[in-house]
Design goal:
The protein is of the alpha+beta class and 421 residues long. The protein contains eleven helices and 19 strands. Strand 16 and strand 17 form a beta hairpin. It comes from Microbulbifer salipaludis. This is Aminopeptidase P family protein.
Length: 421
């Protein structure tokens, strides 16, 4: 069984880098919607916002001493430029200089398709199969008066790209571009929050559709298929799902153990989708039939753990303090200490946006201070090896007044879905 992280990576690729380039995210109206879709009123990120992001990146590059930045296809490229592309052994990349216009480097035969996906900019440098794409990057920098200095690489740039750039740009020092990319992407704009709210709305509505269809004898594959179909029918893209039953629910990211729904058994689901490249991530724990007292107790404790995390997420507080508060609460209730089982064996939450998992996290030692526009999952699960696990996960975003829910957690096992924030 694939892990949740593998599912998230696959979903992100499907959502952002299709086999055929998707509609460019211009000022045009959103794509056509199917009957039953919840995408009415959804607006893609505007070109003006992407241009402002590039300007902010250039200002940050000036502050941290980066002369240019290279982005490969994926979330960062889409975030700054609107270009939806895929990765292969043939390099396509975006170069953002500290001053001047962005440029795209791509294989010659891909240029028409790349231009279809571009939302702004005109400088496209092509290379033939026998030529070096890294020489084209060097030409971009030279034409912008950058003959030496510091070249920033976003976190997901592959080794062969870094190695090729190092050989072609002997006068440059390669450094991490995280201070720039994180400095831009960590804080979401109102337009980004609106897309994340819509993705969460779709996933929550899909849970309501699937919960009613659970039956004894169903396998994880059966339930996953129902959830994929539900999210897709509602307009979700890059859909991913994970279903775990009984003892399997004590494995936070899955198990290969054979599983079927039985009376009185835990059903743990962890699912999400994307809308215009922005992700949802919601976990729900049900009991098929009548729950035991122990199941009810652990479920309610996890639900209270979410409240503890939410209340600890104060503006200006270090992100790690949220995790600390939850672990202290669980310890008082006999779980832990620390990551010890039975208890909470993973961080309390992760950053989320265009990627299902992105910096920063609700994890011990994280000193980044919480600020308006940051988004996180809130998922303080409890796992009892050999018995079952409970995880409730709803995402939150920081406002000028403190945290707010994308989706409100459920109140009880009797009404386990929750509602929109």
């Amino acid at each position: 069984m694939p892990t949740k992280r593998q599912l998230l990576k696959t979903a992100a690729l499907l959502a952002m880098t299709p086999a055929v380039p998707l509609r460019a995210a211009t000022n045009a109206a959103p794509a056509d919607k199917k009957p039953g879709s919840l995408l009415d009123g959804v607006q893609p990120i505007q070109v003006s916002e992407r241009q402002a992001r590039v300007e902010k990146a250039q200002a940050l590059m000036g502050k941290v001493g980066i002369d240019a930045m290279v982005l490969e296809p994926g979330a960062a490229m889409l975030y700054f430029t609107g270009i939806r592309w895929w990765r292969s052994e043939r390099l396509t990349c975006v170069v953002i200089p500290r001053r001047g216009d962005i440029a795209v480097v791509t294989p010659f035969f891909e240029e028409p398709s790349v231009r279809e996906s571009m939302t702004f900019g005109e400088d496209v440098r092509t290379w033939h199969e026998h030529e070096s794409p890294f020489a084209r990057v060097a030409s971009v920098l030279k034409d912008r008066g950058i003959k030496s200095g510091t070249l920033g690489l976003e976190a997901s740039v592959r080794w062969f790209v870094a190695d090729g750039l190092r050989d072609a740009l002997s006068g440059f020092k390669l450094v991490s571009a995280d201070p720039v990319t994180r400095g831009c992407r960590m804080v979401k704009s109102p337009a980004e929050l609106a897309l994340m709210k819509k993705a969460n709305e779709i996933t929550l509505a899909a849970y309501g559709m699937v919960w009613k269809q659970l039956r004894p004898g169903m396998t994880p594959a059966d339930v996953n298929q129902l959830m994929r179909e539900a999210q897709t029918s509602l307009g979700g893209q890059g859909v991913w799902t994970m279903a775990l039953f009984g003892e399997g629910s004590a494995y936070p990211h899955g198990t290969d153990q054979p599983q079927q729904i039985r009376e009185g058994q835990i059903v743990l689901m962890d699912c999400g989708c994307s809308v215009e490249g922005y992700q949802s991530d919601i976990s729900r724990t049900f009991v098929y039939g009548e729950p035991s007292k122990k199941q009810q107790k652990i479920w309610q404790l996890v639900r209270e753990g979410q409240n503890v995390a939410f209340e600890a997420a104060k503006l200006g507080a270090p992100a790690g303090s949220v995790d600390d508060a939850v672990r202290a609460f669980y310890l008082k209730n006999g779980f832990g200490p620390d990551y010890r089982l039975p208890g909470l064996s993973h961080r309390t939450g992760h950053g989320i946006g265009m990627e299902g998992h992105e910096p920063v996290n609700f994890v011990r030692g994280e000193k980044t201070e919480l600020a308006p526009g940051m988004c996180f999952s809130n998922e303080p699960g409890i796992y009892l090896p050999g018995e079952f696990g409970v995880r409730l996960e709803d995402c939150l975003y920081m406002t000028e007044k403190g945290p707010a829910w994308f989706t409100l957690p459920p109140d009880s096992l009797a009404s386990p879905l929750g509602r929109l924030g």
